[in-house]
Amino acid sequence: MSLSPNANYVRYTFYLAFVIACLLLPGCKALGQATDSASTSQRLSNSDNELGGKTFWSHIVQDQRSIWLSPFRAKAADAQWLVPMAGIATGLLLTDRDAVAGIGSGNLKRASQISDAGLIAYSGGVALLYLYGRTSSSKAKETGILAAEAGINSLVVHTALSYGFSRERPLEGGGAGRFFRPVATSFYSGHSTVAWSFASVIAQEYPGWLSKALAYGVASGVSLSRLKAKEHFPSDVFVGAVSGYLIGRDVYRRRHNPEVDDSFGTFVNVHPEWNSGNAGTSYVPLDSWTYPVFEKLISLGYVRYQFLGLKPWTRTACAEMVAEAQSRIDADNAPSSEAISLLDSLRKEFADESKLGSSFDNTAIRLESVYSRSAVIAGPPLNDSYHFGQTITNDFGRLFQRGFNQIIGFTARAEQGRFSYFVRGEYQHAPSGQAYPLSVREVIADMDGTEVAPATIVPQTNRFALIDAYASMTIAGHVVSVGKQGMWWGPGKGGAMILSNNAEPFYLVRIDRAIPLKLPWILKYLGPVRYDGYFGALAEHSFPRRPFMHGEKFSFKPTENLELGFSRTAVFAGEGVSPLTFGVLWKSLTSAVSSTTPGADPRISPGARHGQFDFSYRIPGLRKWLTLYSDSLVHDDVSPIAAPRRAAINPGIYLTRFPGLSKLDLRVEAVNTDPPIVNSLGGKFFYWESVYRDLYLNKSRLLGHWIGREGKGIQAWSTYWISPVNTIQAGYRNAKIAKDFVPGGETVNDFSLRSTIRIAPQLQVAASVQYEQWLAPILSPGLQRNWTGSLQITYWPKQFVLHRR
Hints:
Elements: H1 7-32, H2 54-69, H3 79-94, H4 96-103, H5 108-136, H6 138-165, H7 190-205, H8 209-228, H9 234-255, H10 290-299, H11 315-331, H12 337-349, E1 363-378, E2 383-384, E3 389-390, E4 403-416, E5 419-430, H13 438-448, E6 461-475, E7 478-484, E8 507-513, E9 517-518, E10 528-537, E11 548-559, E12 562-572, H14 582-590, E13 608-618, E14 626-635, E15 648-655, E16 664-672, E17 697-698, E18 701-702, E19 711-723, E20 726-737, E21 746-760, E22 763-775, E23 784-795
Helix pairs in contact: 1-3, 1-9, 2-6, 3-9, 5-6, 5-7, 5-8, 6-7, 6-9, 7-8, 7-9, 8-9, 10-12, 11-12
């Protein structure tokens, strides 16, 4: 979606952001209020109210008056809640069309029926609570009354706004999502707002983990099915869910009678003891400054129970590592000043998560960062990672072209109890690019086994994109999340063979054992274990369209110095291949038959599968100096260990310091996806398959290692640590692509210099320059050169942090 051609759309976006902020005011005030100021006369008593009675409807009138007049009572302090929430809603609004396209098709009628049935069942459950409560439980009766009150309030607000904004639904008007159209009612979702208003009341009346999981789980299912049915855009569902949640919370605050509180089983009404195993937490973005700091502490031996090959890490997991490092440094007779400095910087970053406990209310929302990056590319860049490589790698799939490139973005996160929400959105600008000539397009068709593509000029990019946007729940040390998330499954710095942030994250459902688990009995010899798994849908595929992808990884630490990881991914199903059914999913998980067997029916293909193995090992005698690690990948085999000659490999070493130069480190990595076997000729082995010919891409960027198909390369970085947040880094990269894949072969050399300086506690400046030269006769005769210079400014607006007790 382009912003510049449609000024009206941009104007409507900001109008809506203002309206959204106004609508969220009553609930935001309730959410941030430390004490309950509702008068006794407003509360329900055990005898003066019945569902549908006179008092009930008078409360509805009072609620509506409060909701619609709330913008006139706004205060400056409300910005700490409204700015992040309105920003998230605006970001979703700007990416609605792309998000709906990424959801794909499927049985829309069934999804719509599921959402209807879910809401009807929820309403029936509320009614049953009320009926049961009339004879057996004052608390159940109050829950039914308050849930009904919140649902009616939500429905009234939704009805007024849906007709007022008159937005087209995704299947109307070509999916443009235009506002102020006759008889259009997409903004916002009535199903979502009513379901979440029910859930909000029930979760507060019965705040145990099981009751909350059931209440919010049903509401989430109703909301997601509205998206799958293409009845609403993501912004419609988000605004509806947040509005319903906050209205329900406000109704409970006003009407709840503490005299009816009781407890039984998991529904006990007590303040929970928050810890890393149950507290809602977001993931630390993959490009955060904290990862190199943690990796250095790990290599120095002060953190031994986290995994290098499974990222991102949650904030609570990072707090656990900070605590571990603190205990080991305290026990060290002579800890280095460098280690102490590294730990101090991390302690400040994860101070809130370190306070988890019974006296800590895990409730907050913050605008975490605002950033801007300007980059100029002088000369012809490489930006086709599937065929010819990339000038800028591991950058979340951001588009770039020759000339001036710009991103302006923000990150925001929120936690409440077991739940967490995170969004990272940004405006992206990139110049237009030339279409490949016919000769190159013919070569690409031969590389991929497809028809020759038409000449298509790369249009100028002006768009708002969501990099990460997800909601999660923590239960028993597991984080269950839904949305877009970047992941990195490998120990290396320059790339991960099976899953990296080289491509834009895709929409998925994920279950992650975020806190390492110690197994009992004889299994204890495996050491701490972590596992991670996801299921999602890839975007902008053509061969076939709309495939799905799942992946699983298990990592072990049999000793404090050795880490082992095993993972597997499968790209399967898709239009014209096999339908998405449980049987097809099961086959992709269990089948040992090659999906490219001659004569095999592609309609029952188990999918294109890759297996991965990685390890990292701190060398004996040099434990605090040298770490050896490796990442490897194989196609259509269980693991690279079972087929080493067919495997791609990515080994590396990390020297944490030089003798006499403790602040200088060195990291070197090699990579090879061109093993000496017949299968790999022509680039038709790794990241490619005859059925899934663009299988390992998301939005045209490789999900795996930047080296791509049939490549060999090396990377090296040396960093001088002025302090944990002030560094200077020099880098080198070389890549060679085989001649049997790219006619005439290809050679790329990069030299880079990057400096990161924290000029104030809340302000950081990062500047970099890169010189690249590449030779690819198929693209251009002679040696080509380009310079890339970038400047990024990041600001952490701490004034928007809500005070937590």
